Amino acid sequence: MSLARQVTAFRLVHWTAYCAFVLASIISCTVPRKFQQGKPFVYKTIIDIKGNVPDKPQLLERLQNQLDDSLKIRVISYAGVRREILKPPVFDTANIDRSRVFMTALLHSLGYFYPEIRDTFHIDTVYKQYRTHIKFTVTPGKVLRLDSIGYAFRDPELQRLALRQQDKSGLKKTEPYTLQKVSDEMDRLLTVFKNNGYYKLNKEDIYAEVDTVVAALIDPTLDPFEQIKLLDSLRKKRENPTINVVFKQHPVKDSSRLKKYYIGSVTVFPDASYQEEFDPKLHDTATLKGYTFIYNSRRFKLPFLANNVYLRPGSLYIQRRYFRTINNFTSLGAWSNVEVEMVERFDSSRPTLDAKLRLYPAPKQNLNVSLEASRNVSDILTTGQLFGVGLNGRLLNRNAYHEAIQTVTSARFGIELGSQFIQTLQASLAHTISFPRFITPFKIKTDSLINPRTLLNLNTAYTDRLLLFKSRSFNASWGYEWVKGRRREDQDLVGQRWRKTWQWIPLNYEYTDVLKTDSLRHLENKISSYRYAFNNGLIMSQVLSMSTGVEKNNKLSVLRARIESSGALVGFIKRLEEGSLARFVKLDGEFKHYINHPHASWAFRAFAGYGLVYGKTKDSFGNIVNENNLPFFKAFTAGGPYSMRAWPIRRLGPGSSSLYPDTSGIDRFGKMQLEFNTEYRFNITTIAGIKVNSALFVDMGNIWSTEFYPGTNTKVPEASFKLSRLYKDLAIGAGSSLRFDFDFFLIRLDWAYKIKDPLYANLSDGWLHDIRILNGQFQLGIGHPF
After folding, report:
1. Which of 273, 352, 431, 556 has the greatest number of CB atoms lying within 10 Å of its CB?
2. Residue 370 pairs with which residues in a beta bridge?
3. Does residue 68 contact residue 105 with C-beta atoms inside 8 Å?
4. Start and end of every Bacterial surface antigen (D15) domain (predicted)?
């Protein structure tokens, strides 16, 4: 073969291999970029946990965080298909050893003793790339459990306090031992001591002494053969290893740490400034309730300030009161920053702390004006689409009446443009006053409550739907809001506590007046539901709601419940009962649970609501009849971007009835609703700083109501809830989502299909009816659906 032919053959092989590599790179899921030529680099690191380990995903995530940085790779994903490893680190076996040490230390801190971690690696050669695959096989071993917990403090008073609060300890017998639990218990003890005057005591003064044999077992520096001997002796003693923990006190080096401190003078600077230091000779000074106020303006009333300071001159120092003072002024919103300086003073017969409270005011008022545009595709009175433009204004006053009372005045004016140019005119005005205390006819003790408030709300709105109706509404309410639960700085640091936010509205008045046109009355003759949708409505109700949540590790749970009762007492007035007053009891509850991982998360939601309607009204002929459903503005609805996403908004239900055809365009309302939602959310890539994410979701639920066939008193049985029909009545939708996360808000594009449509329950129970690629439902939403 000639030299030319040999060169040509070589080039042919070379370029064939190169093209094959390029093609493989394009198709491959993971492609390295900007790696060091000729050196092996980290391509993948895997941790495999063996055995039945509780919370294995969480443990895996924590072990991955213990890997040496040189074993971690930076992956950029494109559309979830192609992934790039940017600048993969050069492989070095020393990094494996360091990672193994870090992971072993973590397992010891979590109570696993004598864990076993084996590592292997192999290098694949892919066209001049030396891809290193690393695998750690982790066998955590048995979990060390607590046997006994004791307290042995040198100081008798500290010992008494520790034993008195022993029942609130987070360390319980037979529970797993972890260093974090021991640290949390030390923090709890310090909180107990500081709430009893021990201002200078800190974590250096106390320590935890553990069982000596087991302590050696969890010492990562101990020789492995010595660990085996100790482990053998421990197994002979007990089949399941346990540990004893005793909390003790270090020898005292500074005697002042064991002294109780008392509050001396308390000086308040209500309008402090970063630009100048207050001088009592140059500013106004006043004394009230034992507090000294130094100020240069009358922006705040002194009695109001004194009522929110909980550091009492002459009283024992209590850390809880220190933090409560800071939290009180911070939550009021009238100050941008709150600082409390404690200064020791030794010129008295007992240790004293002088407090200086500096309050830095925030701007008193804030005005926001915004312009919005919307597209209404679900209007119940038109089959077309309306384009709307609205102008919004919001004025916030953070210090009304010189007592940090917040007032919010908001106004809105909008128009909707349709086939007749201006289709709708809307205007609304609202005013809310938030008092930072309870205003009641009798005094209520609120020391155990966080951020108690009294809320007064006034709202009026006017809507003119040209040629159809004019609606005027007014709402006034008086209520209370508070948080019940321990503050974080005062909690016992035992697990997680449910902090509950309560709202009680004893007086809620809503009235809607509708002026109908002949065009609307003509539509009512065709669509019976319109007779109930657009009527004068009166609500005189009381509302009680509660929301709470707990976060533990990578899991978050949120619970919300609400009950509203209208007309319970005033309904006995015959004129109101037979008039426009609505009498009902409405209950609804929602539970949400999230499981978060570094690049993905699971989200679950369950919602249930029911309205018991027991009022009476007059029909068009003047006859007294029973009310069957909730007012339309209080009723349950399903569909849209935040509910059953395979259906347009208010287009699902009721039940499996065919009273409303799928293409009728009539809104559906119900007095009962069940809904369950599940989402698997995951990251895709980042484009120009915008996070692009996706999700796979399933929605299941429906609404139910009391419906009658047109022109009759015969009920539609498929519209009412029956447990025996639940399988047929439930609607199921599923789909996918594309989401653009701008950090401060999220745009969501959902595409869903009707997997089970109860409208076709008689045809294969409604499963997969008329499923086609383009026969889905598009939803545009802002933020996550739940």
Report:
1. 352
2. 392
3. no
4. 579-786
**Contacts of 455 by beta carbon, 8 Å cutoff, 6+ apart:** 432, 433, 434, 435, 477, 478, 479, 480, 481, 503, 505
The C-alpha atoms of residue 698 and residue 675 are separated, in whole angstroms, by 11
Token output for 726: 């639940």
With 0-12 / 13-18 / 19 or more C-beta atoms within 10 angstroms meaning exposed / middle / buried, residue 732 is buried
What per-residue confidence (pLDDT) applies to 415?
84
The Cα-based distances of 481 to 224, 648, 676 in angstroms read: 59, 35, 29
Average pLDDT, the chain: 83
- Judged against a pLDDT cut of 80, whether residue 523 lies above it is answered with no
Q: Where does 262-318 have alpha helices with state H? A: 302-307
Is there a contact between 514 and 532 (Cβ–Cβ < 8 Å)? no
Exposed/middle/buried for residue 626 (C-beta within 10 Å: 0-12, 13-18, 19+): exposed
For residue 234, give the H/E element and its range.
Answer: helix 224-237
d(C-alpha 268, C-alpha 724), whole Å: 67
d(CA 241, CA 86): 46
CA dist., res. 126 & res. 37, Å (int): 12
pLDDT tens, residue by residue, 500-519: 999 999 999 999 888 888 87
Q: With respect to CATH, is domain 24-139 assigned 3.10.20.310?
A: yes
Same fold flag, 24-139 and 261-361: yes
Instruction: Give the integer Cα–Cα distance in Å for 519 and 420.
Output: 15
In this predicted structure, the answer to whether residue 262 has a pLDDT above a threshold of 50 is: yes
Q: For residue 436, is the peptide bond before it cis, meaning its omega torsion is within 30 degrees of 0? A: no
Q: What angle do CA 675, 680, 684 make, to 5 degrees?
A: 140
Q: Which amino acid is at 659?
A: L
DSSP one-letter code for 630: -
Q: Buried (b) or exposed (e) across 756-766, using 16+ Cβ within 10 A?
A: bbbbbbeeeeb
Rounded CA separation 232/213 (Å): 11
**261-361 CATH pick, 3.20.20.150, 3.40.190.10, 1.10.150.130, 3.10.20.310:** 3.10.20.310
Q: Would you say 560 and 547 are in contact if contact means Cβ atoms under 8 Å apart? A: yes
- What is the distance between the alpha carbons of residues 278 and 356, in angstroms, rounded to a whole number? 12
Select from 416, 420, 429 the least CA-distant residue to 389. Answer: 416
Report the CATH fold assignment for 364-436. Answer: Outer membrane efflux proteins (OEP) (2.20.200)
Q: 354 forms bridges with which residues in the sheet?
A: 343
- Whole-structure pTM over 0.85, yes or no? no
Domain ranges of the chain: 24-139, 145-257, 261-361, 364-436, 442-451+465-635
* pLDDT band, residue 379 (cuts 50/70/90): very low
Report whether 738 contacts 749 (CB < 8 A): yes
The strand pairing partners of 151, in sequence order, are 247
With the C-alpha atoms ordered 10, 11, 12, 17, is the resulting torsion angle positive or negative? positive
Q: How far apart are alpha carbons 633 and 650 in whole angstroms?
A: 12
pLDDT in tens, 393-413: 999 999 999 999 999 999 999
Distance, CA of 151 to CA of 581 (rounded, Å): 64
Find how far residue 308's CA is from the centre of its chain. 29
- 732 forms beta bridges with 700, 756
Amino acid at 386: L
Q: Judging by DSSP bridges, how do beta strands 291-295 and 284-288 pair with one another?
A: antiparallel
Strands 206-210, 242-249: pairing kind: antiparallel
